[in-house]
Structures are given as structure tokens and as C-alpha cells.
Fold:
Amino acid sequence: MDIIALQQKLTEFANEREWNEFHTPKNLAMALAGEAGELLAEFQWLSAEQSCALTTQQLTAVKYEMADVLLYLLRLADKLGVDLEQAAYEKIALNAEKYTIALAKGNALKYNQLEE
Amino acid sequence: MDIIALQQKLTEFANEREWNEFHTPKNLAMALAGEAGELLAEFQWLSAEQSCALTTQQLTAVKYEMADVLLYLLRLADKLGVDLEQAAYEKIALNAEKYTIALAKGNALKYNQLEE
Amino acid sequence: MDIIALQQKLTEFANEREWNEFHTPKNLAMALAGEAGELLAEFQWLSAEQSCALTTQQLTAVKYEMADVLLYLLRLADKLGVDLEQAAYEKIALNAEKYTIALAKGNALKYNQLEE
Amino acid sequence: MDIIALQQKLTEFANEREWNEFHTPKNLAMALAGEAGELLAEFQWLSAEQSCALTTQQLTAVKYEMADVLLYLLRLADKLGVDLEQAAYEKIALNAEKYTIALAKGNALKYNQLEE
Structure:
């Protein structure tokens, strides 16, 4: 994925609409969470099984909510100068320490509950 | 960003911990929204100005919450077979129709309020 | 539930800590959504069945996340002068129009999908 | 607020529409978080000042999103047997320990950052 190209497209989009004053990191985080809420709403009444076998209509709706989350995430990363790919690898490494295979295998407890 | 490489890494991570049974699309959407909530919490008491000038400590916390959102988004896309980059461009095109420059310039109303 | 008493308690709590400057409606809405995200996280890896039969430890955690949501909701209502009980009855009446029994029976589609 | 009366109304509402199978605690937590996301969306592009001086139209929208959050919270409490009022007072007491006046006065850091 060409993140820079997408971010430039989003910058143009915002510039053309004079939306920069609205796009503070705080507001972008809110917008991202709002979109995550809409993504959630697509799944809220589905069973686990239904969520694994979405209809075409459901998948399209889910896809665009995921895109909305991504777009705000890219925009926020751009505003904050965050390298998302590097952050992702760093976070995976941190998670590997918190959720060691020995402790986490077969359960999905939070790391602070793993020893209990 | 090499999405496939990151998704493979996440698949391995989940396989090693036997987490696949937990990673239904429904549950991944919940986890993503939970992380979006944590991202939100980093900004909730900051002023607009403070959110534009994060301290190093704040930026690090924000960066890892953004990474968490990204990781669940990538995992969900993998499970659903969604091409995130294509979805992003399609959504930008849809947004350009909903938020035409003429209507949206200088305001950030929702598209169904734009004519009011 | 004595809402006024709880709201007064929250006002005192905020006053004693000089938190009023932080408690704008915008920030309170963020805090509420952050707590909703924490509530979500308690359920994210549970099956439907497990969520209906929480352990004592899980129920305690869930209870306090619900309390957090309620406290921010009460605080926000206080700041905005919203009568929550009246708003609840008004919303139920609106929902009854949107989700008529004839259309909604046995399915949980959103109201704009009900005719499809 | 007569919580029992509201909960009975919600139970009837769900019974008439045969929605009980959808109303697992897990799904209700998702729905609550989705509504919190909609509440958030009402505030996302507003400045702190604007959020303190909502227009009538904005306040109405906010009021009904708050009502949606409350209704799912009441329904969840009913399903789980949680006494919301008691939980609220217990949580305030816990918060008073975590955020002592001496430490928290004039700042809104999270309790685990207060000593830093």
C-alpha cells in the first residue's frame, strides 16, 4: 500500500474543502473512533458464524467502514508524523513480550490477567 | 507499507497462540473499536492546541494505540479478503461525490446536513 | 435512581480537583466513548454464551465499566441541561415508529434496511 | 429516574419484536459502544467552545444519542442484574482513592501517570 500517495490524496481533499482547521489530531482521533463505532454496528446483531459468512451487501458496508477507519488513521499519522508501518512492527514486538506463547496459548486474556 | 507481510506476521502470531477461534470478524471489529477507544482516551483531556503539540511521551502512547488499530484492521481485512488500498480509493471517490467542494468548503457538516 | 444526587456528587468531585476546564461537552463525550470502549474490551473475546454467564470477576469488571459510562453520561447531561429520563422515553417512542412490530419482528436490521 | 419502569418498557419493546436472541450482553455492549460513537460524531468537528453552546438542532441530536446510550446501558444492566446506582456510587468511591485531591488537583492525567 502506497501510504504517502493516499495521504497526499487526503491532504488535497481536505485542502480543497478548507477542512484543515477541523483536522486537529484530537478531532481526527474522534472521527476515527466514530467510524470504528459504525464498523461495530455492522456486526452487532450478527452471530459469530454470520460474521464469518457476510452477505455481499454486508461485506460492502463493512469494507467501506474499514476504509473510513483507515483514511482517518492515515490522516492522523500524517498530521503527527507517525510512520505506521514501523509503529506496527514495534507494537508486534511489544505484544510478543507481553503475550508470550507459553502464557497466552489457547486463551485470550489480557496480559495482566495471564498469570492468574 | 507491505500489508501482506504484516498480515502474515499477525497470522503467525495468532497461530502460535492458538487465537484463531477468537479472531472472528465480529470479535476483531470489537477489538479494533476498543483500541480506537484507547486512542481517544489519549486525547480526551487535551485542548485542540495541545493535541497538535504532543509531548514525546504522549506521541509514543498515541503511536502505539494507532498501531493497535492498524493491526486489528489488517487482521480483519485478511479474514474478510478486503483489499484495503482499493477500498480506500473507492471510499475517497464516494466521499468526493457526497462532499462536493461547492457544498463542503469551509464547513464540516455531515453530507445530509449540507443543504440545510 | 436519584440522578440529581449523583450529578451533585460528580460536580463536587470535579470541583475539588479543579477539573471543570477539562469537562467540556466535547471532552465528556470522548471520555464516555472511551469507557464504552473499555466495556467492549471486557466482552471482545467472549462467545455469546460466555457473555450470558460471566464469572464473578468478569461481572465486577463489567459493572465498573458500565458505571464509568453512566457517570460520564450523567455529567454530560448535567452540563447540557438534558433530562435523561424524558429523553429516554422520547427515544423509545421514536424507535417504536422506526421499528414497527410488523416490520421488525424477529430481525434486527437497521430501520433503513427493513423494507428490503 | 425510575430505572425499573424504563427497563420493563425496553423488555416489552424487545419481546414484541422478538429481539431477545440478539440481546446478549456481548451484543448490547457493542450496540452501546456504537451509540457512543454516534454521540462522539456529533461533537467531532466542534471546537471546545462550540460544544459548550450547542444550537437547538445540535442539542436535540446529542440528546437522542445520549438516550440511545442510556437505553442500551439500562438493557445491559437488566440482563446482567447490575444495580447501576449502587455501581455508580462504588465507582465514585474507587475514583476518589485513585484520584486523590492532592494528586489530581488541576490536572487530568490518568491515575497511573499522577506521580510522574
Residues 56-80 of chain A form the longest helix (25 residues). The mean pLDDT of chain A is 94.
